[in-house]
């Protein structure tokens, strides 16, 4: 009988290495592999039938007991996020993957016509158009084709999208800075590509700060950019209401209200204490709920938390 070899903390940390100068400033990971409980690569392979159907109930039970081994996390998340049905076969998933990659390439090509920097391995951090959509000539690099459409609504969509691209770039630079993964412009550009293309496709939400924290794990876990995009897209189906904003409200406020109601019932003394501190609106939890505790824990621990929440799985 085979057992999962006990891994040291340094071996676990090697999956998501931190820049040496940041070791003392990032939260320490508490996640530990649990022999016989953590979903290992061997247990993962054994969860598929001969045709490729996944015993998702067995997988979820093991995740709840001990999380997912980092070596298989990307493949597991494609199921947890709902990219693939557990009832799909190996052949089904191969066809779906190919079709989605082609669809992503088409979306990227559409965006590249407007902003050629997309897909180039670089990204923008400075504006390329003015408020009225005119190109800023002193910005280096090609700006792509201008609107040139007789449809005012489409022209407005293009201008608004181009205006948000540098904000995405600035947030990309700040995303998971301690991780070695984002020390290369190529990896930063992958994150920027995905967020930029999503902002074009879902123009109602476009881009809101915090979406970079949701997308970053997908980019790190899945080598193929298209696969990472579709995982992010599935996650946003569940989380997009967090990022809806109007002139009077922000989407996550509904979750803050729910949290307040729960604490009031579960721990009325704590709720009263927060009220006395003028914290009854629970605004201190705004970031926690919006990005699902991504910035409160280490990268490893936040992924484990998401797995326990079975984010997006239905």
TrEMBL record:
Give the domain of life: Eukaryota
Cite the Rab-GAP TBC domain residue spans from the record. Answer: 67-313
Q: Which region ranges are annotated with the description Disordered?
A: 131-151
Q: Which InterPro entries match?
A: Rab-GAP-TBC_dom (IPR000195), Rab-GAP_TBC_sf (IPR035969)
Q: Which GO terms describe its molecular function?
A: GTPase activator activity
Q: Which PANTHER family match?
A: TBC1 DOMAIN FAMILY MEMBER 15-LIKE ISOFORM X1, TBC1 DOMAIN FAMILY MEMBER GTPASE-ACTIVATING PROTEIN
Protein name per the record: Rab GTPase-activating protein 22 isoform X3
**Species assigned in the record:** Spinacia oleracea (Spinach)
